[in-house]
Structure to design on (434 residues):
């Protein structure tokens, strides 16, 4: 490594420590200055390579700097294509919508309209709830235990994490939290519980505008709901005239195998939110889609300066080429089996430290004994793997490799996790004396 590179590392770090707010968090787990990335590999300024099992928290399902998306973006810029457009009509926006209809909506029989709510996931969630409230004239939105829907006030009101809710600094009164599938174990039907509350005028339960759900709670610890549960939730919402919002910001865009994560249950949500991997390239981008007849918005009733980010339209359109056939879906299913087998092996090998495997598709993880998952993730970084934790007390090691990762890289990363666990467990095992 050259002296220059080295000096730059330290200066950069100092400037960040001096200037950037203490609110930053991921950099504490991964203390490097990252410089370049390609596919599933990231390099820091010192030339160290890391395998990426984090994928921008699910914003990089197609890996870093996908060549086809990059080419489309560079061409758009080279041609002086529109970059910023609010909600005026642009060529890039029309192309995105044409492709989205052709590749995603039509094949799934979805007669949905598409709204551009602003560039982030929480923008999509806020707009979804705003729409549900306008349609029903009701205020409450039901969210589930351990849910995560974003960091703005409305989204926090339907999120579970106590520390994040506290950060709001105001009472979060517009959401009601109810138990997710399996919250009380396998024997308690939490949909029957919700149904009873909604049926009984003496329950004290305010009828909500909508129920918002993640089919796999990614941030909340990779808790997943069953097909039967999700189907029952759909029926419950229809029965009570409550809108069903599927927040597919993290589990969507192929993360669980299918484009939408709810497809395994053969249901149709009323409203869907997408963001994270929607642009395909890591550019900020979100949409909210809803059944055509739910489009009761007045012009400008929801607004935002960055609803027309054409670079994101361009890369998102290129990303949709991955969905022209079922190759990605099939390869994700195959890779998911490899991950499941490896994680099952860890549960078996370390019964005192690894409790269970969770998740589906390439959104899987292992619940660990207290302190283990965080220690494993930190040590994995020293071994050259970027992997994070999830759950209210960071009890789950969460694997989020790119869907496009090669089999060799996938096995390499799984091997590094196995090594990291072995090292962490060994360091914690008291040495026998005598
Ligand atoms: C990340 C995430 C959000 C929030 O998206 P931001 O872009 O961070 O605002 C909302 N819902 C789910 C399920 C998410 O994973």
């Amino acid at each position: 490594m050259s002296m220059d590179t080295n000096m730059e590392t330290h200066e950069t770090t100092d400037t960040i420590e001096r200037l950037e707010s203490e609110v930053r968090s991921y950099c504490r787990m991964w203390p490097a200055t990252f410089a370049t990335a390609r596919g599933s590999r990231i390099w820091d300024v010192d030339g160290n390579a890391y395998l990426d099992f984090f994928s921008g928290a699910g914003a990089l399902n197609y890996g870093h700097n996908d060549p086809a998306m990059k080419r489309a973006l560079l061409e758009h810029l080279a041609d002086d294509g529109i970059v910023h457009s609010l909600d005026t009509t642009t060529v890039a926006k029309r192309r995105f919508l044409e492709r989205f209809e052709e590749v995603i909506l039509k094949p799934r029989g979805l007669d949905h309209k598409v709204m551009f709510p602003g560039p982030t996931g929480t923008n999509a969630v806020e707009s979804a709830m705003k729409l549900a409230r306008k349609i029903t004239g009701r205020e409450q939105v039901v969210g589930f235990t351990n849910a995560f829907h974003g960091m703005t006030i409305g989204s926090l009101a339907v999120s579970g994490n106590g520390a994040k809710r506290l950060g709001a600094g105001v009472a979060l009164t517009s959401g009601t939290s109810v138990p997710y599938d399996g919250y009380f174990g396998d024997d308690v039907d939490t949909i029957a519980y919700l149904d009873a509350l909604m049926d009984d005028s003496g329950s004290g339960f305010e009828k909500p505008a909508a129920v918002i759900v993640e089919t796999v709670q990614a941030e909340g610890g990779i808790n997943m709901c069953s097909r039967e549960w999700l189907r029952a939730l759909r029926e419950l919402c229809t029965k009570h005239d409550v809108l069903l919002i599927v927040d597919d910001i993290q589990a969507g865009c192929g993360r669980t195998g299918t484009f939408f994560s709810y497809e395994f249950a053969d249901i149709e949500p009323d409203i869907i939110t997408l963001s994270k991997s929607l642009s395909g390239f890591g550019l900020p981008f979100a949409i909210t889609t809803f059944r055509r007849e739910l489009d009761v918005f007045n012009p400008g009733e929801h607004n935002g300066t960055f609803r027309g980010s054409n670079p994101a339209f361009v890369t998102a359109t290129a990303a949709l080429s991955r969905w022209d056939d079922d190759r990605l879906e099939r390869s994700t299913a195959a890779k998911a089996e490899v991950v499941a087998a490896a994680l099952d092996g860890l549960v078996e090998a370390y019964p005192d430290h690894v409790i269970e495997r969770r998740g589906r598709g390439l959104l899987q993880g292992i619940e660990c004994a207290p302190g283990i998952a965080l220690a494993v993730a930190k040590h994995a970084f020293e071994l050259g793997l970027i992997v994070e934790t999830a759950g209210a007390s960071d009890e789950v090691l969460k694997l989020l490799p790119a869907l496009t990762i090669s089999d060799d890289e996938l096995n390499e990363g799984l091997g590094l996790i196995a090594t990291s666990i072995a090292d962490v467990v060994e360091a914690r095992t008291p040495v026998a004396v005598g």
Notes: The longest strand covers residues 354-360. DSSP finds 14 helices and 17 strands in the chain.
